[in-house]
Amino acid sequence: MLYRKIAKRIEDYFLSDSDRLLVIDGARQIGKSYIIRYVGQRMFPNYIEINMEEDKLGNRIFAEARTTKEFYLALSVIAGDKMKDRKSTLVFIDEIQAYDHLFTLVKFLMQEARFTYIASGSQLGIALKNTQSIPVGSLDMAHMFPMDFEEFLYANGVGSELIEAMRDNFNKNTALSEALHEKMLDFFKKYLLVGGLPQAVDKYVKERNVVEFRNIQREVHSMYAIDASKYEQEHNRRLKIRRIFEMVPSNLENKKKRLVIKDIENKSWKRSNDYSDEFEYLVSAGVVLEAKAISKPSYPLLENSGKNLMKLYLNDVGMLSGIFYRNNILAIMSDMKSINLGSVYETVVAQELRAHGYDLYYYDNKKNGEVDFLIDDPDNLSNIPIEVKSGKDYTVHSALDKFLSVDEYGVRRAYVLSNERDVYVKNGITYIPIYYIMFFENVSNVVESL
């Protein structure tokens, strides 16, 4: 069983007697159904699972279930012998977005409280946007992502005592021993190859076969390309959505790593605003991560962001490294000087920050240059710039230096992440090893209520 942090969130929900439906949102193939099934079967003797996508393509038993009585009747067709009481019966509604009317119905199912319910979906951002009647106060949305680096360590047999000891080192701004640093850096590089898709991680842990986990990543990437526009009816928009998704890896290889708008349709007069719906579609589907540009930061960052000059990252770093390097692992594991790993390192940091509750922003200023990431610093009502370095020149960062020289920004902390072991502070910048990104946490932004 692969350890997933969200299991604790699910367990707490089952024990809470909440009147809101917990809905686990996220892209396909990241383990949503697996972890709900694992926790649900362990905690409830009567476990009922309904996949609404399968129902829609099959018997359509729930297609016309628009009242609670109709829902119970439909449920009895497939699991009548398991419909007991709330404490013993869990109903897991998988792919809930397949039927829009269920978002309205769940309010009344929760009010009647005949059973315990939980739901998941892989296109919920899109579905909710297109749903006319969303019951306010009835849903708790918990966003799920591919396995992060900490979960990857657990999958590879690293124990909680060591991880907590490392967390303590991070909090105290101290480095790991040389031997432990080399071990963690080796794990981190392997994470760049394998990524966080549970099937790929499981295949790697069991077989250590690069061809096998690369095949899984390719299949999922192809599935995402198809799914990215699955619910969009307009043919022309479907093509644009898929084109933008397929452009992400090549754009990350550009110097600025930004989406090149004119390349979407080979139309130089087009601007990012012309594709705002397509961008939102991909982000809502969970297959890409969006980083918004900030030219003049203040707290909170949300009030300063715009849609222009955005960066898009794939939601899984292993998928990206597979596209770039295929079955060749030397580019990452051997520190080849001829290979620039900047886009891979940026992607893994974006993936970690997003999975840990942060929205993604970066600094882009014509005068001062570009800094990879910005996160809010609520303790100082300011922002924290983060620069990601994949090479040996990690102390060279002119844009970050210029950023810190602007007094009006009021920045108190800054980080440079690299492969180096040493942890130290110089000129207001804290230098830490890249794997310490696993301990950045913004818990206040993990769950969203509707």
Give the spatial strand order of the biggest sheet. 7-6-8-9-10-11-13-12
Largest sheet: 8 strands, mixed
Question: How many helix segments?
Answer: 18
Calculate the mean pLDDT score and round it.
92
Uncertain regions: pLDDT < 50 for 5+ in a row?
none
Radius of gyration of CA atoms, rounded to a whole number: 23 Å
What is the CA-CA span between the terminal residues?
31 Å
The secondary-structure class comes to: alpha/beta
Q: How much of the polypeptide forms β-strand, as a percent range?
A: 15-25%
For the secondary structure, the number of strands is 14
Task: Assign a percent range to the helix content.
Answer: 40-55%
| Outline type | globular
Domain AAA: 19-153
Pfam families: AAA_14, DUF4143
Domain DUF4143: 227-391
Keywords: ATP-binding, Nucleotide-binding
Verbal overview:
Residues 19-153 form the AAA domain. It comes from Candidatus Merdivivens pullistercoris. This is ATP-binding protein. Keywords: ATP-binding, Nucleotide-binding. Residues 227-391 form the DUF4143 domain. Helix 1 (6-16) packs across helix 2 and helix 11 packs across helix 15 (317-325). The protein starts with 5 loop residues before the first helix and ends with a strand. Helices cover 42% and strands 17% of the residues. A hairpin with a 4-residue loop joins strand 9 and strand 10 (382-388). With 450 residues, the chain is of the alpha/beta class. An eight-stranded mixed β-sheet has the order 7-6-8-9-10-11-13-12, sandwiched between helices. A six-stranded mixed β-sheet has the order 2-3-4-1-5-14, sandwiched between helices. The chain is globular.
